[in-house]
Amino acid sequence: MRFGAEVRNGGTRFKIWAPKCKTMQLRIKGRRKLIDLEAVDDGWHRLDVDGVKAGDLYKFVLPDGQEIPDPASRHQPNGIHDFSEVIDPRSFEWTDRDWKGRPWEETVIYELHIGTFTPEGTFAAAIGKLDYLVDLGITAIQIMPINEVYGKFNWGYDGALWFAPTANYGRPEDVKAFVDAAHRHSLMVFLDVVYNHIGPYGNYLPAIAPIFTKRHESPWGEAINYDGPDAAVVRELAVESALYWTNEFNLDGLRFDSVHTIEDDSTSHILELLAARIRASRPHCYTHLIVENSDNQELWLRRNSRAEPVHYTAQWNDDVHHLLHAAATGENTGYYADFEVVEELCNKLGRALAEGFAYQGEMKPHEGMRRGEPSEGLPATSFVVYMQDHDQVGNRVKGDRITRIAEQSAVKALMAIYLVSPQIPMLFQGEEWASRQPFPFFSDVPPDMREAVRKGRQEELKHTPEHEDPTKPDVEETVDPTSVKTFRSAKLDWDDVLIEPHASWLGHYRALIDLRKREIVPRLKGLEGFSSDYEVLGLKCVLVSWRMGDGSLLRLYANLANDTQDNVPPIEGRRIYLEGFAEEGRLGPWTVLWTIEV
Question: What is the mean pLDDT of each run of 10 residues along the chain (598 residues)?
């Protein structure tokens, strides 16, 4: 790769892209004399240094004497501002050479945050939970971002170094050991990556290169320079980072954060380039690429004539989440305002389950603009569906999970919908046993920034459902995101798994996932677009049907109301699951019925 230190021929090649610097020097820890790098074409500085080996520490020295870590560092053993460590990727002994991944149709995702998944908060400790995930029925682990960040705790979305796994969770070889062990358990591993902005602490790139552009604005300020002068190298930086994660760490795929905030007017969008390069680098493996995209753009999810993804495999389906959440909790403010009209809720839910997007070009009230593109032509497997995720739990005043704010009957109905749906299901860590631990937002920052972060967080939460509801916590009650206590409060308590009511919740999840494995997964292969339909049966009652890949007809009858729904059409097909009660012409409160007709 072009970026980063590379061990070779008894030494190490150091290279850095710094077109703003006429000269660049290298400091090797333990050596008194600085080493001059050679300026080469297009702003690169490079030199092969004999005797430097894996484990040695180094920094780059700018013309004004400022010392910085390598922007393409592979490891920061002592923090984001300190020395970078030379890493030799060949030193790790993989045991998964025959692993090719798993088909997308088999995917059941478990999203987790390494720092809170176990008491230790490390990759080494997480290996000990792989048997548990297999027993649960999980087939893919999705890890929240692990790039190096400031301090000791963070959600991960403020990473400043695109190649360095944070030392808070272990060394790079610990990440590899986790992936290697997961593959031995037949578990895929996806990583959440962030190419829409760079975290503010530890980002030294603006001092040496045109990493940002004034042509575009992002929610974090100036946008990353994907289409201006010198953008070619910036684009390559993002591509090489993605390839580094998939190829050097043997990952099965990536989840790209908030791609709707990436601005690029190039003839070939950076998202197109990323997908093409990653897929080309793994021709003999299953590669699954997921996007988060509030713009609901169908173009990134299109299939070719062989029904294979042209660019991205699937998108997180926020529309389904918001609709299910609004039905179960009654929340209809903040971003749930898009679903506040009860008379339209089931029409939108039916559309989102059958076609993917609830909004396909219509005006979204809380945003005041049109969102989405027609998605009926996409197969249901183009969407990842969930009842909870890190955002939807964390973006609450106290980080409450849905089991604390909705009735048990409602939660079980939602489970029965999303875990059996032809869309690809995703669980959030601990939800399967109704964990008591919240998952609030947390971010370690320098002391002089803590008050600003606290106030900024309160301002952000004013746009969420709780702010306008007098029965919900006020934003002034927001837990301190900069406190280590907030971080620790999110750590899962694994002792709860064995006691009630948590053990019963866990058994319910296992049963639903097992049902999915037996009845749904074998029918997903060959599933096409334009193969679904829906009918609104009542104010909160809907019938959705899918023509599956094997030709069978899957039907969902769902009543998400506290009252019994009458005048329900005759129930057709073999019943495979019932939550609540159903009889001819009637569905009970919070009832979900699935049938199959072959």
Answer: 92 97 97 96 95 97 97 97 96 94 98 98 98 98 97 96 98 98 98 96 95 94 94 97 97 98 96 98 96 96 93 97 93 78 84 96 84 95 98 93 96 98 98 98 95 91 75 84 97 97 98 98 96 95 97 98 95 97 95 97
Residue whose tokens read 């609901």:
296
pTM above 0.70, yes or no: yes
Contacts of residue 512, Cβ cutoff 8 Å, sequence gap at least 6: 415, 416, 419, 420, 577
The catalytically annotated residue of 227, 292, 355, 496 is 292
Q: Which of 105, 180, 252, 257 is catalytic?
A: 257
User: Which of the 8 DSSP states describes residue 144?
Assistant: P
The span from the CA of 174 to the CA of 305, in Å, is: 40
Please give the Cα distance from 391 to 144 (Å, whole number): 11
Clarify whether 257 is annotated catalytic: yes
Between the CA of residue 447 and those of 7, 442, 483, what are the distances in Å?
Answer: 37, 14, 11
Query: Which contiguous run of DSSP H or E holds residue 232?
Result: helix 231-243
Residue 404 one-letter amino acid? R
Q: How far is CA 31 from the centre of its chain?
A: 42
Q: Which helix (H) or strand (E) holds 283?
A: none
Q: Give the separation between CA 373 and CA 125, rounded to whole angstroms.
A: 43
Among 2, 82, 71, CA closest to 244: 2
Positive or negative, the CA dihedral 169, 174, 175, 179 is: negative
Are 180 and 188 in contact by the 8 Å Cβ rule? The answer is: no
